[in-house]
Design goal:
Low-confidence stretches: 1-12, 193-211
CATH class of the largest domain: Alpha Beta
Number of helices: 6
CATH topology of the largest domain: Rossmann fold
Radius of gyration: 17 Å
Order of helices and strands: EEHEHEHEHEEEHEEHEE
CATH superfamily of the largest domain: Class I glutamine amidotransferase (GATase) domain
Helix content: 25-40%
Strand content: 25-35%
């Protein structure tokens, strides 16, 4: 386990958050993850301590000491099954669980397997020829591109940005398979999908799941 949050926090209400993923100091989304925690600590009335935990070291019993779980970008993970088990633990025990990029994609896989009953639901990054690909390759890679974002008026993210548009870097090669969107909508979670034509030859599928 590698610790990247400040160790000199001396407050009675510090929350422990597990970040699941293979930390790479040269991968910008991982640095941005740590920065987001630091920025939050400057604004919140309590402090948050984070522990990066390699997916191969996940133990469900050890997760019980954390107030929340963040499934980080940067898949494929060293152990997909343990990652999905951690996500399932969070879902079934009402533990806050947040996934960014590949982390969110694995939340979709866990949901498809254990809620919708598609036990063979798969991610193309692990098995591109699987029969039930809920996460598929984008028609063209967005990795390394700087592209515009549009926010829903009145949404939390619009409030945080203070605007309805922004430009951010993309690191995506995979997304929710558009052919599976109708199946995802049949479950207990609400699914909002936006399919956006980035260029004439490129489509990106962006999704948000909420209970």
């Amino acid at each position: 386990m590698v610790k990247h949050a400040p160790e000199n926090i001396d407050v009675p209400r510090a929350l422990q958050i597990a970040i699941l993923g293979e930390f790479n100091p040269e991968f910008p989304p991982h640095l941005a993850t740590d920065s987001a925690i630091l920025h939050s600590n400057q604004r919140l009335p309590f402090q948050v301590r984070t522990h990066w935990l390699s997916t191969q070291d996940i133990r469900i019993e050890s997760l019980k000491e954390y107030a929340g779980i963040w499934v980080a970008p940067g898949s494929p993970y060293k152990n997909m099954d343990k990652t999905l088990s951690a996500i399932r633990y969070a879902r079934e025990n009402d533990v806050p669980c947040f996934g960014t990029c590949g982390g969110f994609q694995h939340i979709v896989i866990e949901y498809a397997r254990n809620v919708l009953g598609y036990r063979d639901a798969q991610h193309a990054e692990y098995d591109p020829y699987a029969s039930s690909l809920f996460i598929s390759s984008l028609t063209c890679s967005l990795a390394g591109r700087e592209m515009p974002l549009s926010f829903v008026p009145g949404s939390k993210v619009a409030q945080i940005y203070g605007t309805l548009q922004a430009t951010e870097n993309y690191y995506c090669n995979f997304g929710v398979n558009p052919d599976m969107v109708s199946l995802l909508k049949t479950g207990q979670c609400k699914l909002r999908v936006q399919i956006e034509r980035v260029r004439s030859e490129c489509w990106s599928c962006q999704t948000i799941l909420s209970s």
